[in-house]
Amino acid sequence: MNMTDRRIREVLIVGGGSAGWMTAAMLAHALKQDCRITLVESEEIGTVGVGEATIPPIRLFNQTLGIDEREFMARTKGSFKLGIEFVGWGREDSRYFHPFGPFGKDFDLVPLHQYWLKARADGETAPLDDHSMAWHMAKAGKFAHPAGDPRSVMSTFDYAYHFDAGLYARFLRDYAEARGVTRIEGKIADVALNGETGFVEGVTLEDGRVLGGELFIDCSGFRGLLIEQALQTGYDDWSHWLPCDRAVAMPCDHPEGDRNPTPYTRSTAREAGWQWRIPLQHRVGNGYVFCSSFLEETRAGELLASRLDGKALADPRALRFTAGRRKLHWNRNVIAVGLASGFLEPLESTSIHLIQANISKILALFPDKDFDPATRDEFNRVAHGEMERIRDFIVLHYKLTQRQDSELWRYVSAMAIPDTLQLKIDHFRRYGRLTARELDLFAPPSWLAVHVGQNNLPVSHDPLLDYRGIDARDWLARLRGTMASEAARLPRHADVLARHCAAAA
Ligand code: FAD
């Protein structure tokens, strides 16, 4: 047994966007002693400056750091998010809700949605969404925290946040600096590699300062300063499945006379992509994600500006990207986190989650000076699987469209898709059954929402249901009624936010 101390004593984090400061905060929390953590960032280069919607695991991240939700909401101007409303994705006139959490509560061996499918075949018209507590709350503009009592319909949903990602990074910077992280302002001009091992040895700033380290975390954004520019790791380009490669972003004021932020994100399919709407406390974030082969940037900005539901607060800001992932997230002594590791369009709000997922793996597989290749390979295997499963889920939304009104929609509805996704679609189409795969971030209810919402309805229900002898139509009707009356008695989202933030003061 090797008893010598092989601990890493110096970690250098390159970049101070959400990825850099989330990493710095978690490492400061985990490596309580004997390790120097330094973060270098450049104000001149700045950060990507978008990224406002999240999914429920972010709560675990904050809880692990011991962050109080009320303080977090107050500092980041955050709001609560119960899911995403998709408008115009199946057909131009259709809409559905992807809630966090299940549809109702299973009461039998056979899942609830199978009873809904059967009732539907027998003439029932209530949509699947009406069995989601999250949707009842969302459409009424209400919010409450989930109940602990599993018998209550109020326990059948989950939630995440919308927040200002810049303010979140600033909040985590205070957290990390208070726990000993050193921040260095400066622009990296050069990266030194070891001639024998190819490991990164240090970086040189434009003013000549040299920063060393043993483990380097690349949070430098799309440019991938260490992982790509220095180590030339390579990139798997997925734009044949996800052709959107641009976005314009533009915040606006809340609609006049309505200061109650909707407790959900809205994604509206447009001629060459889709538009996001993310309500925060002080403004609404908007953006148009589009494919540059089918729409010009200036025109996208004009279209977005004409489709805001409040007064514009800035000019449109353009961003460019290529869907895909770095061939290795961990290469030699560099681990990429955030945009440096790859990018999937924000349709299901997964980028900040992927930051969190890589940070979790850094802790689960923390190296020592030996940089064991098997540890690195396991990290890359899991990171790749996670991104592929999310990619498939995002591609699902495009592939299932019935729209044929513009070039983008004709392309995506006809395109070949990954085999892993084709299997899932075929499997659901037969009996409406859902099976979670290893590393699937999105659980069966999420897939169900998109399949049904975009009209990929199964040929028949689960054969097992016909052996059960249960007529669930009355039960489903009572469930919908209970959910509606529960939602009606809840407080408005704006009132919950105001109370929450006041309690933080
Ligand atoms: P950046 O914010 O780009 O930070 C890079 C850092 O590296 C900066 O501090 C910069 O100064 C530093 N740096 C770079 N080069 C140097 C150098 N030479 N020297 C010194 N420092 C350097 N995510 C979500 O979860 N939800 C969303 O709704 C969402 N929406 C998005 C919409 C769009 C259009 C885009 C493009 C992204 C969206 N994201 C979203 C992703 C989210 O914005 C990012 O994942 C997140 O902000 C992390 O960015 P980052 O920290 O990796 O990179």
From TrEMBL:
Keyword Cell division: no
Binding-site positions, FAD: G16, G17, S18, A19, L339, I352
InterPro entries (alphabetical): FAD/NAD-bd_sf (IPR036188), Flavin-dep_Halogenase_NPB (IPR050816), Flavin_halogenase (IPR006905), Trp_halogen (IPR033856)
Residues involved in 7-chloro-L-tryptophan binding: K81
Molecular function GO labels: monooxygenase activity; nucleotide binding
Keyword field: FAD, Flavoprotein, Nucleotide-binding
Active site: K81
Pfam families reported in the protein's UniProt record: Trp_halogenase (PF04820)
Positions contributing to L-tryptophan binding: E348
Protein name (database record): Tryptophan 7-halogenase
Source organism of the structure: Novosphingobium aerophilum
Lineage: Bacteria, Pseudomonadati, Pseudomonadota, Alphaproteobacteria, Sphingomonadales
